[in-house]
Design brief:
2Fe-2S, metal-binding, 2Fe-2S_ferredoxin-like_sf, iron-sulfur, iron, alpha+beta
Length: 106
Amino acid sequence: MVKFTVEDQEGNRVEHEAPTDMGLSLMEMLKALEYPILATCGGMALCATCHCEILEGDAELGEATDAELDQLENLPEFFDTSRLACQIRVSDMLEGAVIKLRGEDQ
């Protein structure tokens, strides 16, 4: 299990615990937790509706892929710590991360 915190668009923070052995993406986990993630493309890194910002723990998650950057750069606003939740796997690398939902900002 891994613990991470999600900050919604209103600034409310909730800590969650998620299994690391199911092969889920962060997007899938956020949807299961009933956050308003559109995930229009179904996790193919084609729509950026699962845009999030990694407020803490971004170094552990590594760099965004070229496919992610292509989508993020088309957004009206993105940050150095912006990622697509569909491209992040729920794993030990998420431990302690703080994730701000941004997808609805578009």
